[in-house]
């Protein structure tokens, strides 16, 4: 354990590197929007240097037009070991101050993050409201539906022959699975997923379409909160046997969740249930197409190798690139003095390319063992609630795609400009299936 409380004040010097006002920014600068517009391989050149030289580095505040910020910088944590350390010590590195690299206004934070930005008992209480619906036992109950949906999605793409993979394939599985589990009417699903996309993409010029980042975020929140509020009202009138009805009728400290709490839960469910699995089904399938030897190896023993393959896909893609914590006390992390209130940002995409944990990290190797990736977080109380559901969706989609689309070809992905989500906006695909298949 290299993080520890610090009781004594630093020695007095002309320049105090432990004073935020006197700290020197690392010469490897990951704060500009232009940095996050680069490819993952290009970004990792910078991260690799930081992992080698300064796995905890002091960075300039990221470029943002969301809201004025008083912070002078943030600590970027780029090594696998230290990411896990931050994740597993929530008493030192808390989530309540926010989870993103940008200083989101408080009203947006509360509405958009739900229990992701909570700590301690409050976080545990709200997480438990949803966790029962995502246990392996509960998810197994809908496995047949997921398997059938995967077959239908591939059927429909085979009929078309070509098109945008994200819209026609990767989006369809997570969107319909999470909203089916919640009981959201089919006619509302595309709209809710659209607003969830905007929550992830407020910095992307295509998503913004001339709007400021604040306007994009506001539009996305107002839209998704509105759907959530309407959904809560109709569910109270006629509850069903699904996740959403369970939330609407649940009690916390003796009272039912109010409209704001329910709407916030809906926003989280929309974002977390859509974006990450869609990204993984885009870039993960592309990894198999780009590495046919790995496809052949998996298909030799699909059932025996799929679990390890999914872990490598998740490591390779890392759909959520960053997550922030805030120091609750003075501490030391990786030899650097952290002060109470400092932002500490885990760079998951760097941790999943850490050479000390993953030999030859830029090789897609589905036989990689061990594979302690941090795509679902580095452990601790904020570990991804939907991990088992995501893996089940990936398993059945990969089964259908790799067996039934042997000649699948992709164009280059059009990536979202974001310092949070490694999302794919569009990616052209052609099935090129054999005649009569």
From TrEMBL:
UniProt keyword annotation of Ribosomal protein present: no
PANTHER family cross-referenced by the UniProt entry: BIOTIN BIOSYNTHESIS CYTOCHROME P450, P450, PUTATIVE (EUROFUNG)-RELATED
The protein's name in its UniProt record: Cytochrome P450
Pfam families reported in the protein's UniProt record: p450
Family, similarity comment: Belongs to the cytochrome P450 family.
Region feature (Disordered): 1-29
InterPro entries, sorted: Cyt_P450, Cyt_P450_B, Cyt_P450_sf
Keywords assigned: Heme, Iron, Metal-binding, Monooxygenase, Oxidoreductase
GO biological process: cholesterol catabolic process
Cofactor: heme
Gene3D superfamilies xref list: Cytochrome P450
CDD domains: CYP142-like (cd11033)
SUPFAM superfamilies tied to this protein: Cytochrome P450
A GO MF label: iron ion binding
